[in-house]
Amino acid sequence: MVLRIGEEGPSAFVRPDDMPETVLTAAPDVVVGLAAGGLTIDQALAVGKLEGDKGVLGGVFAAEMG
After folding, report:
1. How far apart are CA 14 and CA 18, in angstroms?
2. pLDDT tens-digit profile of 28-66?
3. Alpha helices (H) along the chain
């Protein structure tokens, strides 16, 4: 996965041949808030969509799992 934050704002993409098993889809400010520790995983999930294993998010993001 590639996550870029540029002048036009954040963007992320996955190469078609390298699709992850767990995907969180949310507004850019939610993803950045989660990555920065300003949101918990449960807060991000309340406004986003998760496909896959919630436990994977705990291994990727420093946010506290609730």
Report:
1. 7
2. 899 889 988 899 999 999 999 999 999 888 888 754 444
3. 28-35, 41-47, 54-60
- Round to whole Å and give the CA distance between 44 and 65: 10
Domain ranges of the chain: 20-66
State whether residue 60 is helix, strand or coil.
Answer: helix
* Whole-angstrom distance, CA of residue 29 vs CA of residue 4: 13
Phi, psi (degrees; rounded to nearest 5) at 44: -65, -40
d(CA 32, CA 30): 5
- Side chain identity at residue 43, one-letter code: Q
Look at residues 30, 27, 20 and name the one whose alpha carbon lies nearest to residue 52.
Answer: 20
Half-sphere CA count of 41, side-chain side, radius 13 A: 17
